[in-house]
Amino acid sequence: MILKRILLLCFYLFTLNVLFSQEKLSGNELLNKSIQYHDPYGNWHHFNGTLFVTMKTPKNSDRNSEIKIDLPRESFHVKATRGKNTTEYTLNKDNCKIVFNGKDNVSEEIKNKYQLSCDRANLYKNYYTYLYGLPMKLKDKGTIIHDKVTRKTFKGKEYLVLKVTYNQKIGKDTWYFYFNPKTYAMEVYQFFKETKDSGEYILLTGEEMINKIRMPKNRVWYYNKNDGYLGTDILSK
């Protein structure tokens, strides 16, 4: 009985020490551990690959996208099909090309009707490279990694949480990234705007190995305010 109590005490002290050690991590230390989990070979910085993403949203048909990202050549291409229409955007450094239903001589009428523009092309580029480049993208210039790591329970699960803000020229949103305390996998992120009850949270499940990078397979989006469902992005090879 005495030996059993001693063993239980040792286990308790060991567990307490592990938890204490994790909470003593700085923000950058936590980020580095997560990057080591998701991109152990440092492949993101020279990423050249293709992602296939299906976006599901309420009351809309699925949007199926083929996304080609070539970071060394500063090239981006997305071909998205929803219903009968297919839109293609290609960005090569400062050059932009728009193709709609196979035609590259798109009229202004069609551009206005379907909101086709080079600004939208850059929006897609930033969206996909940021989200599928996380957490590695948190090393980008202008990103402010807050030093304090907190422990929080979210949707019934405990996480190590990293707070991130940005240089004002980049953005005013405040982000929180939730990491598995054992593996350091990124499993949730959340952002808030300046207004109360603003922003969204995103739940990540499953993984796809793309160019030896562990990327979340499913991203499910919700409003912070009322947990309203926004949509799901599903990644496949």
Strand order of the largest sheet: 5-4-3-2-1-12-11-10-9-8-7-6
Q: Strand content of the residues, in percent?
A: 35-45%
Radius of gyration: 21 Å
| Number of beta-strand segments | 12
Helix proportion? 10-25%
Structural class: alpha+beta
Q: How many helical stretches?
A: 4
What's the N-to-C terminus distance? 55 Å
Q: Characterize the biggest β-sheet.
A: 12 strands, antiparallel
- Unreliable segments (pLDDT under 50, ≥5 consecutive)? 1-22
Mean pLDDT value = 91
* Global outline: globular
List SSEs in N-to-C order: HHEEEEEHHEEEEEEE
Please sum up the structure shown:
This protein has about 240 residues and is α+β, with helices and mostly antiparallel strands. Helix content is about 25%, strand content about 45%. It has helices at about 1-25, 25-40, 110-115, 120-130, and strands at about 50-55, 65-70, 75-80, 85-90, 95-100, 145-155, 155-165, 175-180, 185-190, 200-210, 215-225, 230-235.
